[in-house]
Specification:
The chain is α/β, with parallel strands linked by helices. It has 13 helices and 18 strands. It has helices at 71-91, 122-129, 133-136, 155-171, 174-179, 192-203, 227-243, 295-307, 334-343, 362-375, 395-401, 412-426, 430-438, and strands at 46-49, 52-58, 96-104, 109-112, 115-118, 137-148, 180-186, 211-214, 249-253, 259-261, 267-268, 277-278, 286-287, 292-293, 323-326, 349-353, 378-382, 406-407. The longest helix is centred in the N-terminal third of the chain and has 21 residues, at 71-91.
Amino acid sequence: MVIKDYKSSPWVKNNGNPWSGKSWGKGKFNPDAFDPSIPYEPKGKTYSFSLNPDKKIENPFDLDNLRFFNKKKVERLLELLEDFATDIEKKKDGRQIVSMIGTGGTIAMTDQNGELVPKLDPEYLLKYAGGTLNERFAITAIEFPTLIDSSQMEIDYEADSVIIMSWIWENMSENLKKLFSGFLITHGTDTMPEGGAYTAIMLGPQTPFSVGFVGAQKTTEDNFSDVGINVKNSLDTLSVLKKEKTSVCFIYMGGSEGGAYNPTGVIKISDSNVIAMESPMHPKIVDASNFVLSSLTNSFQKRVKKENNQKFHPIIIRGYAPTISVNPKLGTNPNHVYETIKKIPNTVAVIITTFGSFTLNNKITKAAQQATKETRKLFCVANPFPEGKVDHKYGPAHILRNSGAVSVSTMPIAAQAKATLAQHIYGNDLEKIAAFMAGNNLVGEQPPNWKQPIKFKDIIEPYGLPKDLELY
């Protein structure tokens, strides 16, 4: 495949063509040869927002917009789900239907002829997890063309999953919807928080189904493994959410000591301990150790749907994040900060992590202020501590607040994902992007006791997508 007027970077293989065949989607997929910045014309229907008319946004309900998954396999997946629904209705056996999407990771490793290979096998996972899962759930799956290490994940891969889920839900029969508990995405843990956050933010606040991400620290071949308990508890979480008539996006990790986490507020803290994830400021959606369903997510979702009663319409994000992340320490050269911000193109926001007292070296504050002003980028600052204060009385904190920097209360990955979505909607309108990042709580990414800052009150709604979004 030859792409006109495109030359890949030296670290991208095969001139940015990830497929071994002669055309896109043909042959074997190689993630090392995929460049998210490659020029690409969507094959399906698109639309644009009035404030960013030149940006083509892919219709999430059109399978022709899939770039990696096979359209016919997705259509076949829905057929199998419908067959399950018909069979369950006939037998009256009470099974719940779940659709799995496999991307890779440790959890997907299975033994084939003595060799560990990545392959999603839902029947094997149900059998391995044990109990009566195969009597309680009917599961079928689709997997990424090449199951990959999660360190190689890209926003575009998560976007394809969002299209699959959106199309399947939109085309389900009412009978299937009654029996459907949600989607379960098997994912490597290294980028699971990022993948979950981008998926949740793309799907938006009006998602009518639940989506769970599940992974593991050890494979099914290890003597001590968390695969079985994480699979079981993630399915139980989908079941509980269905019973509670609540639809959320969550990450399940931690076995019987863990739980289901809000993906916009979780971080990975270990590569060996079964407690792999931590949620510093958001309570668990489901706490497996206490057998309690948190009321927070329920109340948040009800508030969003009441105050912003829009139709379910995900916004597909592609490419690289248009942000620069800076984490200055003692000894960081402000000239380097200035040059970094000045030289990196195609970005709309700079997100700088402060010291714990919401302070920065004054020279770094001024360097960032000057560079963002000269390049017309949004200057954002975030306290490294979840729910950290921004009203400290220290002199450097005053200077930082008076610099025009926008204070962001979300976790860094949520801030990056929101900035990416905002750029798709608003283009380079920095005032609107700032309001969306700091003055809006889209999917529960803000701290639990968050209140909309007064200065954003007349610019953006506090919850959900802006009501006045106009399609172009």
